[in-house]
Amino acid sequence: MCSLLALEADGGKPDFHRWRIAVETMNQLSTVMAMSSEKLGSVLNEEERFTIPPAPKTPSTPGRERLRSQVRKLSSLSQGIRCLHAKMQILREDSNRTLEESEDVSELGSSLMAQYESIGVDLQSLTQAWEAGKASLAINIDKHERRISHASNGLRSPAPSLGGLTVVEEDGSPADALRALNGECPSNRSSMTVSVSDEEIYEAIAIPKQRSTFSREERIAKIQEERGRQASLRERRDATTNMLKELESVINTRPQRPKTGRITSV
């Protein structure tokens, strides 16, 4: 800018060549600045916006919904961190301005202490949100792993051996193996062990919540009816309160009769 302002312009022929070069240089600088501005704008938009992955086309399951809620918690945590960063930036600029422009800096220490307290409260809330999200995610992962382990334990298979697959349990005795080879029934102990060790796994399926069958006009009419009923109840309560206040004011403004001594004869 200083070089541009220092250029001479007297209307002669050398001005054409000189200003042509200046115009070309300014066009190049304008192009570079426009590209840099676009890159800076895209970077700022990416920092301000936490993109949530779009909902898949596959049917929604409880596991996917739980993971989606965890992503939403992470998004809110990121938003809180950005708000805290912006707040600290504003506080730092205000403090620097006060320190440079103000002559009396005796109250700056108390102001900084208040700022530290405010930032500490925000950090505590962010820490609590982080701990809650992490604990919830750990619980969901534990439940998922436990469900998978229970399902794998329920699928029992014959025990392998050198000769192939056997029909005897791993904890069976040689007598049980001999009975199985002879075609006899297994002992009661092994059957009891199998029946006790087998586990039954039940899986519950949640019934989807039924949507309201009322139309929009019916819902509006119902809401207006409810509001009218609440308004009538409020008016009745106000009328009762006003009547009680009037009775109280009448009793308080009524002149008191003088107390007369009562004479009793025996």
Automatic annotation (TrEMBL):
The keyword Membrane applies. Keywords: Membrane, Transmembrane, Transmembrane helix. Residues 1-87 form the Myosin-binding domain. GO terms for molecular function: myosin binding. Signal peptide: none annotated. InterPro entries: Myosin-bd (IPR026859). This is Myosin-binding domain-containing protein. It is found in: Endomembrane system. GO terms for cellular component: endomembrane system. It holds the Pfam family Vezatin. Residues 45-66 are annotated as: Disordered.
